[in-house]
Write a structure and sequence with these properties.
This protein is α/β, with parallel strands linked by helices. Helices cover about 45% and strands about 15% of the residues. The protein has an 8-stranded mixed sheet, sandwiched between helices. β7, α6 and β8 form a beta-alpha-beta unit. It is elongated and about 85 Å long. The model has no long low-confidence stretch (mean pLDDT about 90).
Length: about 400
């Protein structure tokens, strides 16, 4: 198959988080299976920098980057505008067997949808948790959906949902049951076979005997990190020896959180590492006593799988759509409430045996159920089914046209 993947950012723009990792792992494994994979993306790296290479091959994946009008606007408002992509789309789209579009509400998807219909190229759409309109910029999202979004989804040959909740959301939008395929997120477990030596993260950041409570992800208000800071402050005030580590790129909340930590008199017990990846990211998970994701809303966070793969117990809020995966199996699930979160952290830190049990279960769970190879098998099967159905549909149409009147 010749496959086009359309996503507004791609490696090394790691700041943009989970979807980028999923697309990279999937594309790499598809190439290893003999398929040709091309990525259409923008040149965004972060709010202030661009990626210089316009075309390159990464792990066998052919990557084409188109200039973004403003990477600052893209980073702050998730608005990626790359008009130069239009020429490539109009010229090259007919050469692909199938298209996979990510992130749903993007200008790139508007263009690709239009020309995919024009050239009769089947496509798969993956919303990546973005179907919800009840959170920030709700009215803008509803306007996009009215003008473009609903048609993009309705015209897709298949839609990918990562959780049962997202399956239900597709149903509410009127998508036929036969078009919806649930494929959970995953990680490349090979990256977690040989973990960093325990203590390396502590050594780098001067952390001694304190319990490490880790948040790792985008520093955005939707992640609920403020209640984590407040919960940690209460525990420290009660005499617990805790170092709260907040790791990740700033998406507008860093200044507020820094100020909050100082106001609560725990500035010295909070470490902001900035964005980390590779060995140091793994080292953070390995040395953490617990990973906490106190989000207001989450679909299927990759960070939870990463923590589990490093045998680190987790705590998430019940706003996370994989709460049932976590609950009393690899960690705790709590309401979005600082007092309940405080109690859960305390319960985890005071029970080493339970932490070990959750950690061991997490590694087994990820290896058996959430390896990227499993996801690639499912997505590859979706592509194959779409192409078979599409070709059969074209044959049927030709036969009808050839029948005498």
């Amino acid at each position: 198959m010749r496959i086009l993947q359309v996503i507004p950012y791609f490696i090394p723009a790691w700041n943009y988080g989970g979807p980028l990792t999923l697309v990279h792992n999937l594309s790499k494994e598809l190439v290893e299976r003999g398929h040709e994979v091309v990525i259409y993306t923008t040149d965004t790296l972060n709010a202030n920098h661009r990626i210089k290479e316009t075309e390159e091959t990464i792990n066998g994946i052919k990557v084409r980057r188109f200039r973004n009008v403003s990477n600052s606007i893209a980073y702050k408002h998730n608005l990626f505008l790359s008009p130069s992509m239009l020429f490539a789309i109009t010229k090259e789209l007919p050469s692909f067997d199938i298209i996979h579009m990510y992130e749903y509400r993007t200008a790139q998807n508007i263009l690709v949808h239009h020309y995919a219909k024009k050239y009769d190229v089947p496509y798969v759409s993956q919303a990546d948790g973005s179907l919800v309109t009840s959170l920030r910029k709700g009215q803008l999202k509803k306007t996009f959906d009215f003008l473009f979004g609903h048609r993009i989804i309705l015209d897709a040959s298949k839609v990918i949902a990562v959780t049962p909740t997202e399956v239900e959301k597709y149903r509410e939008l009127g998508i036929e049951e036969s078009k919806i395929v649930q494929v959970p997120n995953s990680i490349d477990i090979n990256e977690y076979e040989r973990l960093p030596e325990k203590g390396s993260f502590r050594k780098k950041y001067g952390i001694t005997e304190e319990n490490i409570v880790l948040f790792l992800g985008r520093i955005h208000k939707i992640k609920g990190i403020d209640i984590l800071v407040e919960a940690a402050a209460q525990l420290i005030k009660d005499g617990r020896s805790i170092r709260l580590v907040i790791a990740g790129p700033d998406y507008g909340a860093l200044g507020y959180l820094t100020k909050l930590a100082k106001e609560l008199n725990i500035g010295g017990q909070v470490t902001f590492t900035g964005f980390i990846l590779g060995e140091m990211k793994l080292a953070a998970y390995v040395d953490a006593d617990v990973y906490v994701l106190p989000s207001i809303y989450e679909t299927f966070p990759i960070a939870v799988l990463e923590a589990c793969a490093c045998a680190t117990p987790v705590i998430v809020t019940d706003a996370c759509q994989i709460a049932d995966l976590v609950r009393d199996t690899v960690g705790f699930v709590v309401p979005y409430d600082k007092d309940r979160l405080r109690d859960a952290i305390l319960g985890m830190l005071t029970n080493r045996e339970l932490r070990m049990k959750f950690g061991e279960r997490g590694r087994v769970l990820v290896k058996e159920q959430y390896a990227s190879s499993n996801r690639t098998n499912q997505i590859e099967a979706v592509y194959t089914k779409v192409l078979i159905d599409h070709n059969n549909s074209k044959k049927t149409l030709r036969m009808r046209c050839q029948q005498p009147v």
